[in-house]
Amino acid sequence: MHTKITLAVFLVAAMILIVGGIVLAGVFSRYAPEPSFRAIDSYALGESEIRVRIARSAQEITKGLAGVTRLGKNEGMLFLLERLVQTNFWNKNMRVPVDVIWLREGRVVGISQLPEESGDERETISSPGLVDQVLELPFGWAEEHRLQVGALLRAIGRR
Questions:
Q1: How far apart are CA 86 and CA 131, in angstroms?
Q2: Distance between CA 159 and CA 151 in Å, rounded?
């Protein structure tokens, strides 16, 4: 009998600790610093090095940077389109504003800015012509790095 009571007390205490740990982890995770956006490929754009996550599939391209709450200084996303297209990008679920660099065959053909989504207001921007790549970088990056139409984007390697 004593063994059954001890086992029952032990199981109840274990359950309380497990549930309490899960609850505390949920509470404190809100205050934990968010990890930096994980960049995986390195590129040179003009004279600057950037680190980007590549979006190839329709699902990756559709999701893009939606939900990302911050980008590192030289981090972003490179969208590889299947062919040359006139395309539109919008800011649905965007939590950070971005510079949008439109590329054709590795050369910059246009530079736009896209603000973060604000309430129910969404903004759509269009490529300045046919493009096969689109690059999103932190807002103001293009101006800070004096990026110009005609600049070349080239792969450096995977990190």
A1: 6
A2: 23
CA distance 37 to 65: 10
- Sign of torsion, CA 105 110 116 122? negative
Per the structure block, which two tokens stand in for 22? 């899960």
Q: Are strands 75-85 and 48-55 parallel, antiparallel or unpaired?
A: parallel
Reported as type and span, the H/E element at residue 16 is helix 2-29
Q: Could you tell me the pTM of the whole model? A: 0.74
3-state secondary structure of 93: coil
DSSP state of 32: S
Q: Note the pLDDT tens digit of each residue in 84-105.
A: 999 999 999 899 999 999 999 9
